[in-house]
Prior knowledge:
By secondary structure, the chain is mainly alpha-helical. The protein has ten helices and no strands. The longest helix has 25 residues.
Amino acid sequence: MKQKIDIDIIFQAALTVFARFGFKKTTVQDIADQLDMTKGNLYRYSKNKRDLYEKTVSWGLTRWQNNVRRAIAGESEVTDQFLVMCRSAVTYLSKDPDLRLVLAADPDIFPMFAGADPYASINRASVEMIKAILKRGIRQKRFRSVDVDATAETIFGIYKMLIIRGYIRNEKRQIEQMFEQALELMTHGLIAPMGQLKSPAPRTAVGLVKTTRKESKKL
């Protein structure tokens, strides 16, 4: 069996056990039993329980991130890439109950503010993913010219708030509507162009995405 497959199996088993019992109650023996291997053999992959926990969480977060990357890669239009990125990032945890339970039990994994972020390098890669799409959209003149760094950080901040409230605080029903509203504001803006304020305002280029009336129907 290849080493990479071994690591994936170990981390998945560890994630399942940590999700079931939480970090404090989980023992290395519990994870070894889940894998049907000796505790000594498991120590070949980690120094101790804390090390195994951090590696497992990093693995779970990276898998989440890679799922979003694959979703983006399946789209050719930059506006579709942006929308798919947002949706797949927010909905992923509904398909990964183990990671969702671990996050709910340990909110410090996904803090609202970056200053105390134990997985800052992984989250930084997510921000860079957003930046890449913004730059592509601006270059193709599909997005307005914006401050890419500030806009990417703002979008990631909104995303973290949705994840924290939807999956860590278990406010999923309220968040579904909030997510759609946030996506609407990000892509179409709030203020209508002058001269159109007295009538129902069509979606405009005040948001991030530049759209015509015809194109707005697609979004």
